[in-house]
Amino acid sequence: MTMTEIERLHSGFRNPDPAARAMMRWWWFGPDVARGDLLRDLNDMAAAGIGGVECSFVYPMEAASDTFLSDTFLADLRFAAQAAQDRGLRFDVTLGSGWPYGGPHIDESTASRRLHWEREEVLMQAQRIPIPRAWASDRFIAGYIGEGTRWEAPASYTQLQREGDHLIVPPGRGPRVLLMAISRLSGQTLKRAASGAEGWVLDHMNPAAARAHIQAVAEPLVAAAGAERIGTVFCDSLEVFNADWTGTLVEEFSDRRGYDPLPQLWQLTLAQGAGREFQADFHRTLTELVEENFVQVFGEWARSRGLSFRIQCYGQPPVTISSYRHADAFEGEGWGWDTITACRWASSAGQIYGKEVISSETWTWNHSPSFRSTPLDILGEAHDHLLMGINQFVGHGWPSSPRPETDPHSPAAAELGRVFYASAALDSRNAWWDTAPALWGTLHRLSWLMRQGHRLSQVGVYLPARDISTGFGGAGRVDLYKESRLHIGDDLPHAIRTSGLDFDLFDDDAAAVLDPARFPLVVLPHAREIPPETIAWLHAVEEAGGVVLDLGGAAGIGLAITDPDVVPDHLPITTEVPVRILPGAKLVSGVESGVAKNETVAVTTRAVGAARVHFVANTGQATTEVELILAPAGSIGSAAHDRVVERWDAETGAVHMIQRSSGRVQLMLEAYEAVVLVEHGETSRAESADSAAFTGAPDPQPQRVSIDGWRVQFTDQDHSQPVELPHQWEKDPARSLYSGTAVYTAAIEIPDSAHSVLLDLGQAKPHALTDPEAAGLMEASFSAEVLPPVGAAAKVLIDGEEVGFLWKTPYRINLTDRVRPGGTHELALVVSNVTSHRLAADAGIPRLVAESQQSFGLRFGIQTLDLALADVASGLLTKPTLSIT
């Protein structure tokens, strides 16, 4: 029997392609690794459902260490690559140590540079002034004279004549300021470098620097691992602070812009609003040089080796969204579903340039410090990334480390081993690791599903790079991504997402390849300096039936909102915007029933043939009711009454609901709960479904049955003992530093009349921290702002047989197939907490940090380990009930 389109999609969802599994950034400290540890790590990853590694080589954590690129290191790399391949794991390699690219092979001619300005007041008479040189690597660019003082800055400058090592200053008529432009090394060395990798960061605008790094670092790494064993070669975000100069910039600018930059270079020092045209031309030139001399050079080299070049293409020097087009695989980082993030930057590039898979560096600071992350924390942040168009997770990450506790007789038996200075530690040392297959399996299914078809983004948000770059001035602000976020603000993306719509950013280069009919609505956020080619594209948008909305009222195109501080609450659904703004779905709150405006629920929709896949997630701490309004009738090839909506379970792959569609779906989502809704026209599936939702019959009211007589036994105890629930381990002084498991047991009696039996631990309760930093959370930390009913996860057994895991909202599990009406059964909950208790008691990590700093200097600062137990709650924190119908 031939499978239908939906059956094929569901079959893939139940058994997704292994390529969609989450990966882990695998930190090698030193580089100092033992092959037994490497094999254990790879085995643990494979068993948990993790799909591969991204090898990253960072600072040493012990006095003795191998050297980066040594023969022994390269042999270990080859061993690891082969071992990963043998286990069916993907193996990616970071082309360097620490970040950004650089090292001992980079000298003054290829190191990153910045534009340095010297200002001095000079007398009125004519003078010959020696050109200063503070550092041997300084390169003088030009000198300028202007009327004013250092406190009353000149409004303009005139370029001075140079004779040899002197500037010729003509006579003046009053106070004057001498301004000198100097090319100076940025002074930035590699961050978090391994032993032997120390050196300058390379100049991303100098092709000789890229080629030097390829020859000295990239080629040996690829040769050792074997190109045939490598998935992608990776470049982290650029992060070369204040990098705004290169040795050939004057010539490159002249060739590209058609005029000499030197007479106007002083305009870079002007405050925002002055020198706009030159500043925009200058920073546009920097962007082009990074694209051509770094991204393109590495991309072409990788492809010549049969490899794919993966990059986080944002940071400094300034790159824009379209800069990604010279690479093969696009990656972002950072959570923030309703803001402008690096993930949105990358996923927008993917939409523009046809990349199916967009990855993200995920969980970078998840519930810091290390080992406080719960499966719910990890899932909640992953949902946030999925809402931004991410469909490949690269976990940050997995520290490769000896495990001293494997020898119980060792004095170091209680020590954890190595952890990275930042981020979650997502390895098998976590006490809740039995839950890992359920967690990674859920993300595997979601990642695979979010690769099918294409994402529907109804709104295009223009990135006015020329306007944004004019605000950089002379302060070394050259991060176009971060400045774009400030320029656009948070109100616009929030208004779009909470309406249930999605958006993509696009820039001037993208307009050259975008179909004018791509977006029903295009928004111009405070745009002034729009190139003629983009203006022509915007007019084509209007001709294609789209709407251009000018939020700043200055571009002179489309519908203008003259007050730049106003973002309409109903921006995407104004009367001027055509109905086709809804090719996917939108969200509304139940305003009629008194429900507040939606602030936390978002949807991302993918078109898969004639079907629509809607991923809807509650990103907040409270249960929220919303209504999903589907696309108008006929938009997916069938009338509204002929459509079907199915609810698919990402943890199990099962279909939990099939109903005929009325075009509106009511959803009640608990904190951090997400659902997958698949909309299609194959009504035969609904007719065979075992679901009351299809018939419209009301669900019977469940009977709530309390479970009494609980007992608990920790793994270090011989016998169980009675316990009163809720039971928080930290309140017992003997368990205040305990990381591990405890088994809670109770007898349950099932009524004769029972048709359905659910175990319900209860809802997670809102629990926002008033002072996150005092609880150890870094600025970018993600944590689920709830107190869950179990800390952190529970394996459920009936009569000794595993039923499943409770680790996310809603904390309910179906026992119907495992119990008998009229029967009595033993219910067991094997509760595991987090490993931060061991972290708090660990004396080994401070010793390792001190040892590293004594031998290798201050290459990193460890997380706030003294806050490892801040706001941590372990155990069975509510009294479970049975829900029986």
TrEMBL record:
SUPFAM superfamilies, sorted: Galactose-binding domain-like
Q: Which InterPro entries match?
A: Galactose-bd-like_sf, Ulvan_degrading_GH
Q: What is this protein called?
A: Glycoside hydrolase
